[in-house]
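From the pipeline queue, job 12 of 40. The input is one protein chain; the requested action is below.

Action: predict structure.
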Amino acid sequence: MTIYYSLTFMLLASEMATFCFLVFPLPHNVRKSVFGFLSQSPIIAKIAYGLKISFIFVAILFADALQRMFRVTAESELAKQNGTAHAGGAQAENSFAARKFYSQRNTYLTGFTLFLSLVLTRVFYLTLDLIHSQEEYAKLKASTDGKPASPDAAKEVAELKAKVAELSKKDRDFDTLKKQAAQQAAEFDRLATKYNEATGANSNKRD
């Protein structure tokens, strides 16, 4: 794997670790402190700006990997139609298969990195909204304890309850997405191992 794809894989691994941390069931006070620091720290803001630039390069790599995957697939189909792949023997077929596999791997790697960056951003801001809604609900509940609630206050409480319930549901949906992503990654590793065992392709070959 070339250095830029290795860096992309490291970025993907850090995104997965960050995602697991964001959806981890922390106590409310701890989560409030952590997300407050992440949203207000100037250092985190600079890191986020650098990551945005790196995702631009990942998007370029994704476009290049996608184009290469289509080209390798077209060349493989053309070779099968012309019979040149069979003429070269098993080595030629393994070469086409290896090129196709690595091009697909690079496409999935860069594409999933970009997709997870969008998911992380959405999860972060949804969690911030949930924390703010919970804070507003707690303040409103404290101010109305022991007092008859006015119609406006009751309406606001109902709206906050609905918003908290909706954000909690979205948080559970992202937990489900995390499990699906882990299953897809495991399936990808299984297919990669099965491919290498079936073809005997040299793992040192890289596109």
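Job complete. The radius of gyration is 24 Å.
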